Amino acid sequence: MAQRDVLSPSDLSKERYIALEEHTIVRTTVDRALAAAGATLNLSHEVSSSEVAHRFVRNGMGFTFADPSALPPEISDEIALIPWSLGASIELAYFLPQVSRPHENRDTFLKLLKDVCKDRYGQAHS
To answer: What would the mean pLDDT of 87-116 be, rounded to a whole number?
Structure first.
């Protein structure tokens, strides 16, 4: 499956699904997309973090849906990231408090955050 350009729920229906816990945004998003498509996947494992899920995948225990930005760099060349046909996405935002003296590293951090989003997702919004 790692050689595929895109995967559908039917492609994954017989594979071992390593799901994030129900309260996570990734799991909620995946569950909603599956329900809207009338599809289901059987859980093999339920884990508390994307990093644990990625390590399970690396060890051949199944597949997961997780934020690609959470992929630990030391295992990134051992895992294939394949788009999902249902195309669920999560929008992220940040809030800046109105303070008279912002933290000295705030602007540097925001620039890095925008650069990472642009590199990984091809876009960054202000």
So the answer is: 82
